[in-house]
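Problem 12. The chain below contains 415 residues. Write out its predicted structure in C-alpha cell notation.
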Amino acid sequence: MDQKLVVVGNGMAAHRLVRDLTDAAPGRYAITVIGDEPGLAYNRVLLSSVLAGEVADGDTELATRAWWDERGVTLISDRRVTEIDIRGRFARLKGGAKVPFNKLVLATGSEAVRLPLPGADLAGVLTFRSNADVAAIRERSKAGARAVVIGGGLLGLEAAHGLNKAGLKVTVVHLMDRLMERQLDGPAAAQLKAQLEQRGIDVILNAESAAIHGRMRVGGLRLKDGRTIAADMIVMAVGIRANAGLARLANLTVNRGIVVDDQLQTSEPGIYAIGECADHRGTCYGLVEPAYEQARVLASVLAGRRAEYTGSLLATNLKVSGVNVFSAGDFTGQAGSEAIILRDVGRGTYRKFVVKDNALIGAVLVGDTQDALWYFELIRSGVPIAAYRGRLAFGRAASERHAAREVPILCDAAA
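Solution.
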C-alpha cells in the first residue's frame, strides 16, 4: 500500500468513489479523505426532509465512522484544503499541514449562488445547500413566520417544502414562466404548481427580484414590477456553481467546472475530478446519479481497469414538496417525434411520453411515478415499443400484459 490517494471533498461523490474503489481494489491505496464540513459524509438530497422534521439529522449519514475505519480510510473533517502543489505532490491544509499524494481526486462539489441584490447582507438572507444552512434556517424559523424562497427549481422547491412543513408561510418567487423548467414541460409544471398551492405554498412566476428590504434583518422582497412580499426570512435557491477554486490555483484547465476527459482525469496526469465540480464534454451535472456514475468509472480506472465515462442520461426522480415528479431524456420533443399524453386532473396526475422511430426518447410524470425506473430503462436502452405503444401511458403491467382478450386502451396523441 505505497500508493497514496487523497480525495478532496467528503460528500456523496467521494463516499461512492471510496466504496467502489475499496470493493474493487482493497488495499491498493492508502486513502485520505479531506472535507471542510464537520462530521461524516451525508445525503444532501434529504436536507428538505430534515428541515421538515421528517428525517432525523443523524439519519442522513451515508456511512458510520466504523465503515470508514474498516476500509482503512483516514478521514480529516472540518479542515479546508488551501492549495494543491502539483510538483511537490501534496495538499496543504489551512494551518499549513501537508498531506502527500501520488494521485488526487477533486470531489469539491458546488456552492449555492447568491444574488447580488441590495440588502442581500441582511440577517435572515440564507442559502439551502448544507447541514449548516439547515441549522441556520431552523434557528430563524418559528411557526407562522413568513419565508420567501427565490428560485423555483429543484433546490428551491425542496427548501419550500421543508419550510412549509415546519409551519412557516412560504412564497416561491421564480424568474421563469414555469417551475422546474429544466425538468418539466408547461402542463407538468402547471400541475405541480397547482398541487403546491393546495399544500399552502404560494407561487409567483415571471418574477424578477430587485431588492431586499429591512433594517438590520429581512423585512421583505421587492420585485422588479414594484410588488413587495413581506418576509421574515429569504432563502436564495437560484442555482449552484462548481467549486473549482483549488483547480484554478493549481493551473488546471477550468471552464464551468474542472475539465476532465473520459477517464475523469484533469489536465494534469494523476489528478482527477468527479461530481458537481467536474466539467465533462462541456457539461457540469448538478444531480446525484451522474456523480455516482463518474465515481464508478473512476474507481475502475484507479483499480487499473479499462473504463470510460461518456456522459449521463439526465433523469430526475424524486418527491418535490410532497409531489412525486420524474423526467428523463428529451421530454420536449425533437423534430420527427410525437407525444403521448395522459392527464387526470382529478387524481392530480400527468404523463407525457415522447416517441421517435419506434423508441421512447423522453418522459415526464407528475403525481404517479411508480414505473419511473422502467420508463428510464426504455429510454436508455432504446428498445422498440411497438408491441405496447398504445398502453405505454398506463404503466409497465398494462404494457407487458399479453392477454388476448384485453380491452383496448386508447390515449390522446399530439404531434
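Discussion. The first strand starts at residue 3 and ends at 8. Students who got a different answer should revisit the alignment rule from Section 12.3.
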